[in-house]
Specification:
The protein contains nine helices and 22 strands. By secondary structure, the chain is an alpha+beta fold. Strands 3-2-1-4-5-6 form a six-stranded antiparallel β-sheet. Strands 11-10-9-14-21-20 form a six-stranded mixed β-sheet, with no helix packed on it. A five-stranded mixed beta barrel has the order 8-15-16-18-22. It is globular.
Length: about 450
């Protein structure tokens, strides 16, 4: 269908590209330990983009038997009022695709009953007195075909599985929630589920004792789960769209030493077994790793075809599109790499709070969850958030959970000198990172 659509578009426009994607979603949820939903849905659609008279038009459809001529006509009508852009579509992408495992039969062939049983076993392993247990299992099987009028075409299949679990404990006016998950392209092994259970249990046990929060400019360990306030400003600042808009604080600073020289950050769509990995992006650009930060220096910004054309540079293969709307910039797998030995695998159990950094802290915090991440002026790097789940550290030991506290700081200041990298590196969704010890974080009572 993609070939016929592009043939039709070639006769009506200077250039065009298209994507067809079919997705099957399986969802299983347990609430308060009981099965609530279990079902399978399927959807597919086509997204067409063309350039006519120098203007871009975009259209999409979820019709199973679309009228290709009418689809092209709608795209041309969209282009009449579209943006002026000089898009250069890649050629020959299908011949140079990197080999990468993105599809796993065990995930694709897992029956609904198998997923329900896995969720039920997880509920049973997490049951605790006076606690409510919620578990979710989501499986996705997808097929993607991309092509363009320059002759590029590619097709690949992906699988993804996400297992989420949370425990809620209410004691008087104290509400405690502990959350964790497994995300990958292949089904979790028993060891993966056991790690998830032990991770939740470790944090729950340490949180049962409530202590007074400290105050002042203190060393704070941000766990992999608690790094959202640190990572989000970087993702925005390293986006080519933000650079074009003139709002990135890193614009014009490629090659400058901005961060701790031990820190590197890579966007890597070629990591085996990850649900965000892919051999090609949604604009026919073959996938490759992009060094965002290298040895503390600003590396590359990420671009899709449109932003790359406007910035007079090359796409980094970060184009992502849905059925409706034009492609946009999207990260794949964000990987934190440390020159002092950190790698893409845990050196200590992730159930060790603080990743081995706690013994060196006389007084401070471990932050596992913050409230309101993403609100406010994220691009500046400044953050100020109440803690959702945090632990006090005194004389090298975790003494209990703190409530009614907030942390504040500026990402660009804090990352200039990192106090330490934890040995608990792990994947959380599409990000791999260890715990980071950041000195001088402002901690206040609320």
């Amino acid at each position: 269908m993609i070939e016929r659509l592009l043939d039709t578009a070639r006769r009506a426009a200077e250039s065009a590209d298209a994507l067809w994607r079919r997705e099957e979603h399986t969802t299983v949820t347990f609430e308060s330990g009981r099965l609530k939903t279990a079902g399978i849905t399927e959807e597919s659609g086509i997204n067409l983009r063309l350039v006519a008279k120098g203007r871009m038009g975009v259209v999409g459809t979820t019709s199973a038997t679309p009228d290709l001529g009418a689809l092209v006509d709608r795209a041309r009508a969209s282009a009449e009022l579209g943006e002026i852009v000089d898009l250069a579509f890649p050629t020959g992408a299908s011949a140079a695709l990197p080999p990468i495992p993105t599809f796993f039969d065990r995930t694709a062939n897992a029956a609904l009953d198998d997923l329900i049983r896995m969720g039920k076993r997880l509920v049973e392993r997490l049951e605790r007195p006076d606690c409510q247990v919620n578990v979710g299992v989501e499986r996705e099987v997808a097929q993607t075909v991309v092509g363009n009028s320059a002759g590029a075409r590619a097709e690949y299949r992906t699988t993804g599985i996400a297992v989420t679990a949370d425990i809620t404990r209410i004691a008087g006016d104290d509400v405690l929630m502990i959350f964790d998950h497994y995300v990958g392209a292949d089904m979790p092994a028993e060891a993966d589920l056991e790690t998830l259970v032990r991770s939740i249990d470790t944090r729950l046990t340490a949180a049962l004792t409530v202590v007074t929060p400290p105050e002042g400019a203190l060393p704070v360990v941000f766990t992999p789960a608690g790094l959202g306030a640190v990572v989000m400003p970087l993702e925005q600042a390293l986006s080519g769209k933000t650079v074009l808009q003139g709002s990135s604080p890193l614009a014009g600073k490629i090659g400058e030493a901005i961060f701790d020289e031990r820190l590197s950050i890579v966007d890597d769509p070629l990591v085996p077994g990850r649900s965000s990995s892919r051999p090609i992006d949604d604009e026919c650009v073959p996938s490759r790793a992009t060094e965002l930060v290298k040895g503390g220096r600003v590396g590359q910004f990420v671009y899709d075809l449109e932003t790359a054309a406007r910035a007079k540079t090359q796409s980094t293969g970060n184009g992502r599109r849905g059925v409706f709307g034009k492609p946009r910039i999207a990260y794949t797998n964000i990987v934190f790499e440390m020159s002092d030995g950190g790698g893409r695998g845990p050196a200590v159990a992730i159930t060790v709070l603080g990743g081995g950094l706690v013994p060196d802290i006389d007084g401070g915090l471990i932050v596992n969850d913050l409230i309101g991440v993403g609100q406010g002026n994220v691009i500046s790097g400044a953050f100020s958030h109440p803690v959702g789940l945090a632990y006090r550290v005194q004389r090298g030991e975790v003494t209990g959970r703190v409530k009614d506290a907030a942390v504040a700081g500026n990402v660009y200041d804090l990352l200039k000198k990192i106090g330490g990298f934890g040995a608990d590196g792990r994947w959380l969704g599409a990000r791999w990172s260890p715990s980071l010890l950041l000195d001088g974080v402002s901690v206040a009572r609320r």
